[in-house]
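Long-time lurker. I teach an intro course on protein structure, and each term I like to show students one example going from raw sequence to a predicted 3D structure in token notation. This year I'd like something fresh instead of my usual example. Would anyone be willing to generate the tokens for the chain below so I can use it in lecture? Attribution to the forum is fine with me.
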Amino acid sequence: MQSITPAAVALVLTTACCSAQATPHSDRDRLIGAWRLTALEQPTADGALHRLDCSGLLVFTRDGHISIQVMDADPNAEGSAYSRSGYEATYGTYVLNEKSHTFTIHVTGALVRKLMGLDLPRAYELKGNQLIVTSVNPSEHWRVVWTHY
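-- Reply from a regular --
Happy to contribute to a lecture. Here you go:
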């Protein structure tokens, strides 16, 4: 019968420890960091989702802050409820509810000033290194896909 050396035990424990730290266990851990915009889809007049040509950055911090910037590639883009002239810039704090797969952004500042002070609830789904975000407001039918850097 072969015996296990202390060095082998230490190697197994170190590998298990480091692997556990490298793999986040909670949605909160997985959300922390910077995300690049992969897709932004908005409904057309007939209700079908249309993919916009845009780029963006989403940042979640461990201490509960969030920052979102999105820019439409079209220099003649119109504004929306969240943007002006095709540019969105919003920041504030967020509260995460992992059970309902939602987070709520408390808007501290925004390019669209009427958003300031509002709470914007969002549904989310984590798939691999992607974050899919939608509004919980039944009248809003947009969808945003972010990829973790």
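Some talking points for your students: DSSP finds two helices and nine strands in the chain. The chain has one domain: 24-148.
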